[in-house]
Amino acid sequence: MLKSGVAGVLLAAAMATAACTPIAKTASLSAAFDNPPSYPGYEWTRNGKSVRYEELGASAGPSHCGWQSATILTIGWPLGTVSASAAQARFYIRDPKGIMGGSFKDRLIKDAHLPADARATGYKLGSIDLYLSPADQDDDAYLVTSAGAERWPRADPFYACA
């Protein structure tokens, strides 16, 4: 019995460790987010250390809604918070196909220019950096690589499908 209990704990630990999807260090924004992984999504780092997806996560929208080609970036708020509920998080949407409705497709800018006050947050996904601008962080988040930047609109309020 002890042997099966230890095996169960080891299996659960292995599954928890593998729950988030790693990404190649050279991934482009399109390579990372045109076909995003399902929840809990990618494993981000902050200042070189892995963070929980409740702090920062990027994953596909729910498949039961048909939203799996959209990426939902969830940021615990204020920045650095490990969110326990949607009230402690902000949601930014990358929906180039317009499957989630609303204005997300029209507000997404795939060839964005960073505002002058935009700053790196310390969050990284391989070679992708998350930037926020104090002037527009209530409306937009910026995903940046050496090849360019995208501006993702915020869902405020965030809504879910049935």
Model description:
The protein is α+β, with helices and mostly antiparallel strands. The chain has one domain (20-153). The protein contains 3 helices and 9 strands. The chain has helices at residues 2-18, 29-33, 104-107; strands spanning 45-46, 49-50, 56-60, 71-76, 89-94, 119-125, 128-132, 140-145, 148-153. The strands form 2 sheets. A 6-stranded antiparallel beta sheet has the order 2-1-6-7-8-9, with no helix packed on it. A hairpin with a 2-residue loop joins strand 8 (140-145) and strand 9. It is globular. 32% of the residues are buried. Mean pLDDT is 86; it is low at 1-18.
Counting structural domains, the number is 1
H/E topology pattern:
HHEEEEEHEEEE
Rounded average pLDDT:
86
Rg over CA atoms: 16 Å
Shape: globular
Highlighted features:
162 residues; alpha+beta; 6-stranded antiparallel sheet; 3-stranded antiparallel sheet; 3 helices; 28% strand; globular; disordered N terminus
Could you write a compact summary of the structure shown?
With 162 residues, this protein is of the alpha+beta class. 16% of the residues lie in helices and 28% in strands.
